[in-house]
Amino acid sequence: LRFIKKTLKNHADEVVTLHKGTPMTLKAVFQSMNLSTYDLTVDMLDVHADRNTFHRFDKFNAKYNPIGESRLREVFLKTDNYMNGKYFARIINEVASDLEESKYQNAELRLSIYGKSTTEWAKLAKWALQYNVYSNNMRWLIQIPRLYDIFKSNKVMNNFQEFLSNVFQPLFEVTNDPNSNIELHKFLIHVIGFDSVDDESKPENPILDPEVRAPASWDDDENPPYAYYLYYMYANITVLNHLRKEQGLNTFVLRP
Q: Of 41, 100, 135, 249, which is the most exposed, with the fewest CB atoms less than 10 Å away?
């Protein structure tokens, strides 16, 4: 809330997003919602985590929309937006300096990699280094939403192997040759592990038997079961960790 108010006061005329192809300033975004800085309160933002938040991923996700507006999430809480995630980085830097001041508090923050394309890691690392979202009191955990079915139905990919390759191939390449992307190499030093996220209350058929298909043959429109996702994440991270250990680099945990 403090950050939104301060930014609205000092950077009201900064262009923050495109609406139907037209650039919009921060002031215009708030005007389109009939809001001024005086109206904003913590309760209105409605981003508190209560006891219902953690059981259902959709509710958890909804909490990332301040005032229930996805446009504010786009402006303030994304690394990949019209301003290249500038505001999100500033918020993180402020949180980091608070942690450093209090000395004995540490935080483990999350960033998402969606597995939609192989360029995601490079973009994320570029953002992290450009805005120096680094602190001795902070580490990054990468969360990977289980969105294969959405990508498949939107014809972004043909099979589950493509999803896995998008997530892990850049990591193997940069571990094998850090100079192939020095930004990603530096960023990974501050990443401690991976999480797999989705709505765990969804019903699914969890049967994994010897007939279950390998990722390259998994071309169904529906998502593989949770256990299938986890096994292939675990298998890739294990091999990646062996490779990184040999190079004397940090390794990752799987903490779903």
A: 41
pLDDT, tens digit (0-9, with 9 covering 90-100), for 26-57: 999 888 888 877 788 888 888 888 887 777 77
Q: Quote the percentage of the chain above a pLDDT of 90.
A: 65
- Indicate the pTM of the whole model: 0.89
CA–CA gap between residue 29 and residue 12 (Å, rounded) = 10
Distance CA 94, CA 241 (A): 32
The token duo for 11 is 């950077």
Q: Which amino acid is at 207?
A: I
**Candidate from 43-47, 114-118, 160-164 with smallest mean pLDDT:** 43-47
SS (H, E, C) 38-93: CCCCHHHHCCCCCCCCCCCHHHHHHCCCHHHCHHHHHHHCCCCCCCCCHHHHHHHH
Instruction: Return all residues near 98 (Cβ < 8 A) that are at least 6 apart.
Output: none
Give the CATH number of domain 1-66: 4.10.800.20
Query: Alpha carbon of 81 to those of 17, 74, 139, 143: distances in Å?
Result: 8, 7, 23, 19
* 204 or 167, which is more confident: 167
d(CA 88, CA 92): 6
| Bridge partner list, 19 | 22
What is the rounded average pLDDT for all residues in the chain?
91
Read off the DSSP letter of residue 102: H
Dist. CA 9–CA 3, nearest whole Å: 10
Q: What whole-number distance in Å separates Cα of residue 43 and Cα of residue 28?
A: 23
Show the DSSP H helices in 131-217 as ranges. Answer: 148-153, 160-176, 182-188
